[in-house]
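Question (not urgent): is this output format expected?
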Amino acid sequence: MSGAAVPSYVSIEEYLASEALARTKSEYIDGWIRAMTGATVRHNCVKGNCFLQLGTKLRNKPCRPFDADMKVRIRYVGRTHFYYPDLQVVCQSNEPSSVYQDLPVLIIEVLSPSTRNYDLREKMEAYLTIPSLECYIVLEQHQPLAILMRRTQHGFVRETVQGTESTIELPFLGCWLAMKDIYEGIEFTDTCVQEADPEYELTQEAS
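Got this back:
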């Protein structure tokens, strides 16, 4: 999850060195640092449910999930970004000593009021440039709703999955995620965002 921007330009080397010693995490956007904020219990439950399901389904397979402690590096149009996705699945991992991944096939972010604009705009634009990426999933935390950007022969296509009886198919991993498992233990609210947020915007598409 991301918070306020810190207006100081740093190199990639400086960022990685400082991040290795920092007590809190920050993201890197082409020379600019953005500190990350903490997450709610609901946010962590949704994220944890996804990690548990993917970890179980991918056991003894070449692909494996990484949680929000692992960065992803994105290099495109002369820019470099480092983000901490809530979850990513990698089939071709960087070396064991690396602190980031370059080739995830799946990225999942759980939306919150403070990060939804980053996740649905800035991060989505960056993530969809990753050559290995097959699917980007953003999950609401207050209602069983997922927005997918799925790679096809004609580029990425948006898809909406809604309701606890629905399933997110992941054929490139040979498995799926059931919405009832993603939202296990979650108490839903009437709206997707419960916390006050003047920039809250969401267009719910019919599934």
